[in-house]
Structures are given as structure tokens and as C-alpha cells.
Amino acid sequence: MGHFSISDLEQLSGVKAHTIRMWEQRYGLLRPVRTATNIRTYCESDLRRLLNVTTLCARGRRISQVAQLSDEEIQAAVLACCNDVHDYHQQVNGLLAAMLSFDEQRLNQLLSEAGARLGFEKMMLFVAYPLLQRIGLMWLAGTVNPAQEHLLAHMLRQKLLAATDALPSVPATSKRWVLFLPSNELHELALLFMNYVLRARGQHTLYLGQNLPLEELHAVCRAYDPDALATVLTTQPERSRVGEYAQAVANCCPDKLVVLYGPLARQEGLVLPKNCVSPELMTDFLALVAESAPEPVAA
């Protein structure tokens, strides 16, 4: 399913193209096929094998030894060594390989172990988010199966909901946020994580989720009287209408902070209303929240 160029493999694995070629020629590590124009292309099993081999080599195994192992032996060795709390790159590689194999049990195990070692928030920031960025690159290149992406997204969503539910309750007298996604926007993971970090920092959230019409937001703001609003613009609204949408959201609570997160909110030349901000990274959002929040609850 899907075909990768050698530059795709370089970008996704972090291994230089000339090293991939050497491993291929010297050890028969990968088995590319050639197109009618004599260009080598690689399949998902090649990418999985490369990710796993890279993980083992980074842990001190020699490529000459690893190349002699079967795929099953390589996977077993990777599971045994994907436990370095600070080696985020190799944890991401292990998760990506599990996703490509539709190995739900292994994917869940690796995420759970990373959460236990790092704490939930750091697992999301340093492992899950880089993994999602890699998958985004694969999606743009047309080399990821939507079902693979859905498997990971569903698992992360479950973990975000469980982690949020496990937090202590927050009194409604705390700083109050409304979190929502625009009409027809379904990409919810970033908003769920924002909900988690706000509650972990003792702030109250009214989580409204996907696909909220603007007229409903007006009614919510009147009834709930929030201190701030936050939304994520991934695919909605249309790029040319983001400025108009930002103004409409700002008008719902003209004297309150509005956080617009996501790629559409950071397009070049976009002018936002004065009460709107657009953090570039999730860590920027965390810094914004920290300015007026108590210490986070232990994960």
C-alpha cells in the first residue's frame, strides 16, 4: 500500500539516503522495485524494516548483525529496547512501525509505556505529536493508508479522554474556557489535548468538541460567560475565510481572549482581531496558559 522514494525514507526515518543505499547494496536490507523509468520505489514493509533496524542500530547493534535477523526477530528486539525514557526519536520509530503493521496491541503497549515513563503530558508533546507530524508528511505524500491514521487517532483519543477523566474536578469559579471546533471541522486531537492541559492546570473548561456552528457559540458565550475561547483550525473554514471567521468568533466575546490554533490560523498575511492570538506550537499555548495558572496536577 503506497510507494516511497528514497528521499521519503530519508525524511521519515532520519537515515541519510546514501546510508540507505549502502545498507541495501551491502546487506540486502531493503527490496525496492524499479519503475518503467528505472526509479527505485519502496513499499510499507521496507519502511517498517528500516524504522526497526534504525532503532536497533541506535541502541548499539551493528548493521551487519541486524541485517541477518528475520522481521519477527527484529520486531522482538525493538520491543525489548524501546524503553529509553529520553530517546524520543526511537520511540516514535517504534510506534510508526507498529501503526504501519496494524499492530494495535503493540501500539497500545508502546504508548502506555511511554506515558508511564514520561508522564502523560510529556508523552503527548515529545512522542505522540512528532509521530502525528511524521504521519502528516506521509499523508501529503500519499503514502499512508487512512485506516492506519484512524487506528492511531482513535487510540490517542481514547487515552486523552481517559487521562482527562482521571484529573481532579475543577471548580467553576476557576478561569473558564470554551473549547470548540468550527463547523465541519473533525480533527479533534489537538483540542482534546488543550482541554487536558487546561484542566491539569486547575482551569475550568466547557468542552464542546467538533462541528460547532457560530450561532451556537454566541448562545454559549452569553450563558457561560467564559474568560477565554480556544479553537483549532486544521481544515475549516476555507483558507480565504479564516480572517472573517476569526472576527466572528472575536465578536462573540469581544473583551475576552480568543486562541486560534492550527495551520490555517498561521497563514502568511493573516490579520487577526486584537483579542485573538495564534500560538505557533503547542508549547506556546502551554506558556500562555501558565501565565495565569497554578502548578499542574501530577500526571
From TrEMBL:
Cited Pfam families: B12-binding_2, MerR_1
GO molecular function: cobalamin binding; DNA binding; DNA-binding transcription factor activity; metal ion binding
Domain HTH merR-type: 3-72
Keywords, sorted A to Z: DNA-binding, Repressor, Transcription, Transcription regulation
PANTHER family: MERR-FAMILY TRANSCRIPTIONAL REGULATOR, REDOX-CYCLING DRUG-SENSING TRANSCRIPTIONAL ACTIVATOR SOXR
Name of the molecule in the record: MerR family transcriptional regulator
